[in-house]
What does this fold into?
Amino acid sequence: MEKVISVYIVEDDKLARTTYKHLFSQVSDEINLLGCFETAEECLAQLERKPADIVLMDIGLPHMNGIEATKLIKKQFPNTKVLMLTSHERSEEICASITIGANAYAIKDIPFPSLITAIKSATSGVVWIDPRIADIIVDLLPKPESTDLDNLYVKNKPKKKPDIKLSDQDIEILKLIHNAKTNRQIGETLHISPHTAKSHVSKILRKLSVTARLEAAIKAKEYNLF
It folds into this structure.
């Protein structure tokens, strides 16, 4: 008999929480839903008291966002898996989630049987990605520079540093972007409004000739901009 998987859900939408409770009650022989929380902070506090096998985590949450919460969970509760269950399909959010240790990523309208499969896969140690966003991951993979099996990726290839004029503030913001900070968190760190932070981020993306925050962070490290 398979072990019953213990689950916490972090979701700020009340109707969604009610729906999840109903759905998981029908598979109680496989999944034990220990609790649903509106905020990440509530879930983290409960994990201190009662661990769970996996947390289903939304990204757009009040106060602490799901990416930041996942980072804390992976640090404080290494035996707990995290499945990002969200409507967010932006490449930088997907990659940031996986980079900091999320074990699975699913879009909210996923069929319930597929969600159960994702949960089982993640808890067994297999990274599970919603097929609908797999192409985003593929697009961000580095492209091979050769068909020679010994030199598919030329390591330590010297790169010419681009002529990019970045201010000290731009560099500081790039560091925060690299650490997966949101516009709100960037604003709090630099004592500016989230709107102003967003404007600065947009200008930096243009200077680097990229369209996504993740690409900016990668390019900045690639060319040793900080």
